[in-house]
Predict the 3D structure of the following.
Amino acid sequence: MPKAAAATARVFTSSVGVPHENRHTLVALLNQRLADAADLHSQVKWAHWNVKGSDFIQLHELFDAIATRLEDSIDSLAERVTTLGGIANGTVRETAAQSGLKEASRQRPARLGEGIRRPRRSHHHGPLHATHPRTGQRPLVPRSPHPRLIFPL
């Protein structure tokens, strides 16, 4: 946590049964988490706005759901800060200055499943037969005598 955050955290009187010195430390820690959560929210929304490709709708909805959950967490953190008598530092400038998160890559949006080994077709171009991700061996699955028929597992 940056020293500036602990030094500048203001704490007002509160009816919460936590000693003043402890509330001061808690407010600084919660404001640091608030900055991280707000930064993560902005990066998730960026991914939500910029997703492309064949998995567009699934990723678009996934990122939107994550952003919604983050909004609830951000609100909860800010309310805890104020309950302890502190001031919730959640503006964009404060978030950018205090966040400990690394910046997301702006080269291109991440694609779900990138780097995952795809199933390969058998020699007769029949149904797809996946290989084990570590050993590379095919599972013991009955093969169809006809290339267009797929046996249920």
Summary: The beta strands are 120-121, 128-129.
